[in-house]
What does this fold into?
Amino acid sequence: MNHPLLDRLQTQHGVPLLELDAIAAHIQAAAPKISVLFCTEDPRRFDETLDLAVVLPQLLKSFPQRLSAAVIARSAEKAVQARYGFRTWPALVFVSAAGWHGTIEGMRNWADFVRETADILDAAPRRAPGIGVPVAAADASAACH
It folds into this structure.
């Protein structure tokens, strides 16, 4: 990856580093667990990234039957950001084969991480928010698809 704490996620905790073309397969393979996609950006610019690299294994231990994790390769992060609509780095994006469950942006205290993660895991999956201008459907029937 690009920092020892990020490398440790892969070597000590078995968290894969995913390119864009591998994300969907990871999400499918993780089912019925929810995948948490760790978007790091540059840890030299966003020092909270290193804090999240320490927190992520603890979240996985706290929700072992419900979470699977992957670090998103830097080359794929902008596409993931556009798809899931987060604005702040670093971000934990929670997704499953059924859809987007939620995102935690930036650092929190531990109690807030646990509470927010539990809320996200209990939430029904929904359409990812994306970034940009909403597109209106040509007719009402197209809006449902």
Notes: Helices lie at 4-11, 23-30, 48-62, 74-84, 110-122, 140-143. Residues 137-145 have pLDDT under 50 and may be disordered.
